[in-house]
Amino acid sequence: MEKIICACGHSNPYGTKLCEKCGRPLTEEEKQNKVVDMRYDGMAIRSKTYNKSIIDKIWNFFSSVKVGIALIIITLIAASIGTLLPQEFYVKASDMEKGAYYEDVYGVFGKIYYALGLSDLYSSWWFQILVGMLAVSIIVASLDRGIPLHKSLKNQRVKRHESFMKRQRIVAEGQVTAGTEETLDKVAQKMTEMKYAVRRDGSALLAEKGRFSRYGPYINHVGLIIFLGGVMLRLLPGFYVDESIWVREGETRAIPSMDGYFIENRDFILETHDNEPQGEQVKQGVNVVAKNFQTDVTLYKQPEDALPGDTENLEKVKDYSIRVNHPLKEDGFALYQMDYRLNELKQMNFELVHKTTEESLGKVEIDLTNPKKEYDLGNGSSVQILVYTPDFDGFENGEPRTKTSVPNNPAFLFKMTTPETPEGEVSFVEIMQPPLEPLGENQYRMKFAEAEMRDMSGITVRKDKTIPIIFIGGAIFMLGVVIGSYWNHRRLWLQVEPDGRVLMAAHVNKNMFSMKKDLDAVTAFAALPSYKDQLEKDEDSEESANGSIKEKEGDNT
Amino acid sequence: MEKKKKRLVLRTVILAVLALAIGYTVYGTATKEKVELVAVGSEAPDFTLIDLNGEKHKLSDYKGQGVFLNFWGTWCKPCEKEMPAMDNQYQEFKDQGVQTLAVNIAQTDFEVQNFVDRHNLSFPVVIDKTKSVMTAYNVGQLPATVLIDPDGKVTKIITGEMTEEHIASFMESVKPK
């Protein structure tokens, strides 16, 4: 692509708006402007320089700010659609029933929502591609603009052309009252006092402060990319684990994703405040308020060479009380108290009694986690369990069926043998139901005495190695925001022409008010001509200012 | 010209890296959601479990034989249905170098013994009390069957009920040559 040769002789890359060397406006558009666009200091945005191969075309697409903004808006809209209904992750329904769940709970809208895949929006391929494209846009646009801006700021010249100076927002022109050197010295002194970096080149001066604030947006983008990278790392094996297990009191379970580790639930504790309900509690109809959810656990580890299933030589790692916000931490994993279920049957006690006399022949204690085949009551009486179904669900072909392996509705087929009935009597006992006597009228029955319960803890297993990365990304992001928001880049150009005319211009990327304060100070100190804000709405001077600019433009060319 | 070429290469590299990252993210999320058992073709995770007779069964001890590894529970109807067929085929194949191992998921000895007696099962039945083998194989729904060849590699994973013909052909497929 052809170069642009400025009147000063400097050769600028295609797309440059203001000459890199002297600052003369190079495009017709810039020449028309009263105040030049200083966002990238007039540098050519790289993508605009040429447009040839397919790679360049893709690059230019992502480099466009318009495309970037469109991507942000589309992502925002998509992300907010995902908040209309709860996502699948938060829905308590099995995979098969999820579609029906959305339809039942949210009607036709829910059905459409589910059918369109919006119920699992954030892990959908298109949403991820959208976020990915946003990331590409951020990277490409930043490279395209940040690098030229950096080069321009690094290679700034002190002396600029008059046409550049006059197109700044703040301009001043007049005669020096004191000598050239004296004026420049005074300006330099005052600006240095106000913590500006001052450079001089002959009769020209450039005072600059807070240049680093121009890098704020780019630092911010770096943080954002690190953040997104951290989130992406979660998919790599070993970086992120989020599993859950249920462990009943007294049980020892292998911990998913935490190879070789086992957890034993020794006790689950639920404590509540025993106050009289008052205030908000009454208003909201809350009877009890929980004080503590706690699972006392023992963590075990297999010996190094042990295989899954080999639980003979478990080594105790530690005892711990897992409470809300006090997870058990081990080996980069954290085990959290997440859920609980109270009162699952653990043991059922029966008495073998005579049906009419209610005389007891002894007690049978059935540990539901390990029922025995036969319980000997002495004196020639015994009880056999023929069948045990933990979750009785009716008969099928004469056999009692269990729905699950959980003792929600235990049922037993007992065979009771007493000295009186040496042949044995068979009775089917279901919780809360009168016993069935399939083989005829019995003399004895199993009378339910009491039950022992146990609780169940829902534990979440989590590991997240990406947190430091996400944290650093977030910190850099904030740093960028702070740098870009609370600091600003202030520049003052001052030139004394050979004829004794002084030209002054100032630029600030934001916070013009502070800049004007600095200008007031230096103007007064060095007796400079008063300055003018070319963007200020000033009814009286508007006309004349425009006129004079046009006139001078003619002079330049 | 040199500079332009360099820039083109740089742009291509940056865009390619970003495209790969996005591709991996999409692929990773798509495959993460599926609850998969061990991968076909990979080494079957070794384990040891104890059967109802107190005998230890270590998977790696069956190297050189095919293994028909079935995960089940007494509450699971399809598991129960396929048991007699499995037992028939076990009898057929046990002398041809195909071992059958049925892994019960953490039920009580009583229930498992009762079930085995009722169905007259002759193959070894082990109980995974701590669910650690279930976790290692990432078993979600029952029944689940893993076919392991004589080299210890997983050749096929079957979830759901199998017919007797299927079972026979599966056992045939892992028979040592």
Please outline what is shown here.
The complex is a heterodimer of chains A (557) and B (177). Chain A is an alpha+beta fold.
Feature tags:
heterodimer, A: alpha+beta, TATA-Binding Protein, 6-stranded antiparallel sheet, elongated, disordered C terminus, B: 177 residues, alpha/beta, Glutaredoxin, 5-stranded mixed sheet, two-stranded antiparallel ribbon, 7 strands, cytochrome c-type biogenesis (chain A), transmembrane (chain A), membrane (chain A), ResB-like_domain (chain A)
How does the SSE layout of this entry go?
The complex is a heterodimer of chains A (557) and B (177).
Chain A: E1 4-5, E2 11-12, H1 28-32, H2 54-63, H3 65-81, H4 98-115, H5 125-154, H6 162-166, E3 170-175, H7 180-193, E4 197-201, E5 204-209, H8 216-233, E6 240-248, E7 252-254, E8 261-273, H9 280-283, E9 289-301, E10 315-323, E11 328-330, E12 333-354, E13 360-367, E14 374-378, E15 381-389, E16 392-396, E17 399-402, E18 411-417, E19 425-430, E20 444-464, H10 467-486, E21 490-496, E22 501-508, H11 512-526, E23 532-533, H12 539-556
Antiparallel strand pairs in A: 1-2, 3-22, 3-23, 4-5, 5-21, 6-20, 7-8, 8-9, 9-10, 11-12, 12-13, 12-20, 14-15, 15-18, 16-17, 18-19, 21-22
Helix pairs in contact in A: 2-5, 3-5, 5-8, 7-11, 8-10
Chain B: H1 2-33, E1 48-50, E2 56-58, E3 66-72, H2 77-93, E4 98-105, H3 109-119, E5 125-128, H4 132-136, E6 144-148, E7 154-159, H5 164-173
